Amino acid sequence: MRRRIGELESYYASRQWMTDFEDDAQGKLPPDLKRGVLSEDAVYNLLADNDWLMERIRRIAECAGKKRG
Known about the structure:
Elements: H1 2-12, H2 15-25, H3 40-68
């Protein structure tokens, strides 16, 4: 999963994403093409939530490690 999130982050930060986003706005993409990845807010929120969750997991693991040792 981390690799897939990394791929999404790379695409979202790329010029290709902006080109795809602009092409979609101009109606250049097929109408039946799934385009959820072109949603600015959805992708941003997903990446932000993932960062928050990964930090939370890291802190829980850190606390669990301190209790054991």
